[in-house]
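Tokens for chain A. Residues wanted.
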């Protein structure tokens, strides 16, 4: 049941990303281009995602396990530190340059996008570098 639920939620998430235009790098760059021809439509997508996540986290904090009885793993750290700032900067830079973040990149990869493949390989290399640094 857990695997089926994960698959169904993944399909719903991927469909939402496609519908919102998040898997289209030109749409993302249009949103990030504040000095040019700015496209504010993704701000509504983000506001909706934040609202859904806010409600979800409020419920999750009160539950000992997930609806499918999986272990709840909520973030414990609340302070802003160097690691958070550097990670946010790396994420934002990659998103701005490539027009992809991880979820939409996987959706576009499924559609055969070569740009998404290059982004995904670079992202995996970044994960490996991070893992190597953290192991020391």
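Reply:
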């Amino acid at each position: 049941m857990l695997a089926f639920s994960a698959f169904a939620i993944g399909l719903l998430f991927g469909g939402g990303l496609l519908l919102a235009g998040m898997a289209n790098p030109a749409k993302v760059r249009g949103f990030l281009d504040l000095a040019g021809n700015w496209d504010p439509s993704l701000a509504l997508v983000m506001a909706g995602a934040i609202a859904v996540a806010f409600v979800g986290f409020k419920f999750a904090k009160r539950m000992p396990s997930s609806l499918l009885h999986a272990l709840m793993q909520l973030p414990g750290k609340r302070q802003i530190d160097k690691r958070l700032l550097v990670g946010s900067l790396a994420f934002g830079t990659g998103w701005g340059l490539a027009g992809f973040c991880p979820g939409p990149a996987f959706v576009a990869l499924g559609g055969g996008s070569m740009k998404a493949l290059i982004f995904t390989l670079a992202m995996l290399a970044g994960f490996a570098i991070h893992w190597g640094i953290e192991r020391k």
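The chain has a mean pLDDT of 89. The chain has one domain: 2-135.
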